[in-house]
Amino acid sequence: MTRLVLLLALFFCAPISAAAQDAPLHDGDVIAATEISGLARDRLSPALVEDIDALAGAPLSSDRLHALAARIEAEHPDMVAAVRDVVLADGRVRVVFLVAAIGDDEELQANINARYVIDRVQVVGIDETRISQPLRDALQAIVGTRFDNDEADRLADRLRAEWPDYDVSRRVSRSDESGHIRVDFVLTRAERGRWLHFAPSRSKVVYHAHQGWSGVLDIPMGSDNARATVGLVGSDNDDLVEEYSGYSFRFENREVGTKRLGISFDVSRYTQTWRNETQIAAASFPDAAGLYGTRVTATPTISFAVDRAFHVTGGIVATQLSPLTQVSLTGQVPIDAAERVNTGLFIAAFQKRWRTDRHGSHRLEAAYEWHRASASLSSDLDYTRQEGRAEYRFDRRANTVIASLRLGRITGDAPLYERFTIGDSSTLRGWNKYEIVPLGASRLAYESVEYRYHDFAYFLDLGTIWSPGDERRIRVSTGVGFHGDNSFVTIGVPIDADTVSATFIAGVRF
């Protein structure tokens, strides 16, 4: 970063920019000293360093300086070198060799590369014969011309339009011939182009001022189409009513004979810790689903992609809930024997991303999830759980708008891990879920709108959660923070709480 600041400062303070090496030099003036900026001297050959040092005390010769700059480029083909002389108070000059990596900075790269002639254009990652003939002709038409960043961007956009399932990047390297460069357009298969996607990582480290720390680590291993993931949960009180710890193992293959078909198998074992608020609520409502000590689950599923945007998943979730190993604070042991909770699972998911232009994009994700437990599946509990989720995101330059919606309904006697909660690090931010409904609820309606400028975010959350016979209270929170795609720092404030107070939330999801 320091190197770029220095280079840019010199670029703006003196007219060297794109044609730095061609800027007029003070031929004949005596050189007082030399300097190399942007590259450590020990990365140059001793002979080259000796020739640069030998300039001190000699009259300035443009040809000699440009020859030395060319030798720097020859020793470091990924770098470009320019020459600048600065007149000192005594009339002598200081010579500066400005050295920068071609790919250090996009704007700097474009300015420097504009000095060079393209002697080769190549597409990497796909067979060039699969590219349309007009686009191949356009790519080869820039050979022999000076590098034009805008034209290179237009060609990259045309490649993206023809190959929407690939990410397109540009790579510029020095050619064997002085004053020439090579341009490669690199295409890599994008995850969005897959018909089926791996389960998203649950890895996170999250802190909530009211609920404490949560830590989950998923360790994936495998290939592009098949992988195994080991999950370690130190303590997670961010997702469910329960605070749980334990481990999981998941195997996935997203291309079983065809790119449309995938299978997965997930097994996990978690030990539960219950907050005082949940234990007290469980004692007050003995007819509600009880507390348990461990939860062991096995989930085989099969997925089918209707197209790249829409897929369905079906399977079985077989769970065993073991009784608490010790008496709770209330003196109650709700489960006397292990319970089996076996549910049929169905998920329909839609995901679509599209661009308006080079600077704007839209993304829409939606899913419907259905769980059904019954005696026909040898389940001790009988219930139906349904949840719908949708999220829309619009990005344009530094601006981002995110809107999300969740609706949920449970009928029957569902276990606590299936019940709905809001008031954590990602929903109704600022509230404490254990103060809202410590046992969770069977009905959910929640929406959120967030605006980001760069990473600065302002949000408004609105939601209600209840069970039949309970009061339906709509809760609102707002706040600000710094929200990246993987990390966040949030200050959430409940709008309609009895007392107004700010809640600090921070974390990393990866």
What is the compact description of this entry?
By secondary structure, the chain is of the alpha+beta class. The protein is 15% helix and 46% strand. The longest helix is centred in the first third of the chain and has 14 residues, at 62-75.
Outline the structure in words.
This protein has helices spanning about 1-15, 45-55, 60-75, 105-115, 135-140, 150-160, 275-285, 435, and strands at about 30-35, 80-85, 95-100, 115-125, 165-175, 180-190, 205-210, 210-220, 225-235, 245-255, 260-275, 295-305, 310-320, 340-355, 360-375, 385-395, 400-410, 445-455, 455-465, 475-485, 485-495, 505-510. It is of the alpha+beta class. The protein has a 16-stranded antiparallel barrel. It has a 3-stranded mixed beta sheet with strand order 1-3-2, sandwiched between helices. A hairpin with a 7-residue loop joins strand 10 and strand 11. The longest helix is centred in the first third of the chain and has 14 residues, at about 60-75. It starts with a helix and ends with a strand.
Which stretches are poorly predicted, pLDDT < 50 over at least 5 residues? Answer: 1-22, 326-335
Terminal residue distance:
26 Å
Q: What is the approximate shape?
A: elongated
Helix and strand element order: HEHHEEHEHHEEEEEEEHEEEEEEHEEEEE
Number of helices: 8
Strand order of the largest sheet: 7-8-9-10-11-12-13-14-15-16-17-18-19-20-21-22
β-strand amount: over 45%
**Major sheet size, sense and barrel closure:** 16 strands, antiparallel, barrel
Helical proportion, percent range: 10-25%
Let me know the number of strands: 22
- The Rg value, from CA coordinates, equals 31 Å
Give the overall pLDDT as a whole number: 88
Secondary-structure-based class equals alpha+beta
